[in-house]
């Protein structure tokens, strides 16, 4: 007898979202290499051909998962920047934004790994754009600091790379088990403090 899922119709009220949810669970539990459209279709109870209405192939699914991850990361950073109002001091806003990024990266380690590998893949335009939108908020924040004389002048992306590289390193060490996750907040706070101190304008820039 054929699999009962094979007999089910294409129609599924939120098929795309359900596939992405199931794919993220599979990614977290088994890794990207074990994801397949057929298995995901069986898991959520639709015909094996139904997922192709949204994803041409497995790579398209992975790209969509990475893109959705960057959208969620961007929303987390945005919320961190807006909570408490814009009247907060600049260092506090930087800490909040960077902490939101670090928490996302460590709480969604498998997804974040996929996001990083996908954004540099040739042809993954939507993933690259979603990443630029998410991290663009931090670049905007650095530009704000430069306008107000809190940070040194120069290419804001170049300035931000130093902070990104430091925090990326911390999150990678947490995700690999080299650093206990309980140390994350303290290390991120130290990283931001050192960044702000090192990126202060020289006296001649005032």
Number of helices: 8
Query: What assembly state would you assign to the polypeptide chains in this entry?
Result: single chain
Mean pLDDT: 90
Termini separation (Å)? 78 Å
Major β-sheet, in short?
A: none
Task: Look up the CATH topology of the largest domain.
Answer: Tetracycline Repressor, domain 2
Tell me which CATH architecture of the largest domain applies here: Orthogonal Bundle
Nearest-angstrom radius of gyration? 20 Å
Give the fraction of residues assigned to helices: 55-70%
CATH first level of the largest domain: which class? Mainly Alpha
Shape: elongated
- How many domain units? 2
Number of strands: 0
Quick overview:
With 206 residues, this protein is mostly helical. The chain is built from eight helices and no strands.
Describe this structure in words.
There is one protein chain. By secondary structure, the chain is mostly helical. It has 2 domains: 1-55, Orthogonal Bundle (Arc Repressor Mutant, subunit A), CATH 1.10.10; 58-201, Tetracycline Repressor, domain 2, CATH 1.10.357. Helix content is 66%, strand content 0%. The chain has helices at 15-30, 37-44, 58-82, 90-107, 109-118, 125-147, 156-175, 184-198. Helix 7 runs antiparallel to helix 8 (184-198).
